[in-house]
Design goal:
This protein is an alpha+beta fold. The protein is built from 4 helices and 5 strands, in the order H-E-H-H-E-E-H-E-E. A 5-stranded antiparallel beta sheet has the order 2-3-1-4-5. It is flat.
């Protein structure tokens, strides 16, 4: 049996040896900014303030969708797991909660419709990303998009399948 080398045993009355402190490093003096640099900093602060205000307005418009355990998407619907939608389209959990979702029986998983996710991502981009190029749908990798196979919602039959790569261009 190996020895316990990571713990050292000492006498109960032994005094711990104090560790030597590292010498303090003096602070560097602040660099004096020119008037141009101050103006640039002020502009950056105003832009960031506007972005924060826009984000607060956007979050105020988000209303959670009513969830029903008996709701099912029709056959042929393309969907994503909420975690994939968050990762690919850079959505927050609060934004994902505004989407209607189908809960899979006897499973913690749920599916949100791909077209709803795209609409939400476009609206967010239009509201928050001022001055940037228009929204471009990111290329979604194989295995993320699921298609509803049949209209039944029984656990004994597969209801969601992986979409083929030829279906990606037809959102």
């Amino acid at each position: 049996m190996p020895a316990y080398r990571h713990t050292k045993f000492t006498c109960a009355y032994a005094e711990p040896t104090p560790r030597p402190r590292a010498p303090r490093v003096p602070k560097k003096p602040r660099k004096d900014m020119t008037q141009e640099e101050r103006d640039e900093e002020d502009i950056k602060k105003l832009v960031n303030k506007n972005k924060r205000e826009l984000k607060k307005e956007w979050e105020a418009t988000l209303v959670p969708a009513t969830q029903s355990p008996t709701f099912y998407w029709p056959a042929g619907t393309r969907g994503l797991y909420p975690s994939d939608a968050k990762r690919v389209y850079k959505l927050t959990p609060k934004e994902i909660d505004t989407l209607k979702r189908e809960h899979i029986q006897n499973s913690p998983k749920s599916i949100v419709r791909l077209s709803d996710v795209l609409d939400l991502a476009k609206r967010k981009h239009e509201k928050l990303e001022m001055g940037l190029p228009p929204f471009v749908d990111p290329v979604v990798g194989y295995g993320i998009i699921h298609t509803r196979c049949n209209g039944e919602a029984r656990r004994t039959k597969p209801t969601w399948g992986i979409a083929s790569s030829s279906m990606y261009s037809r959102y």
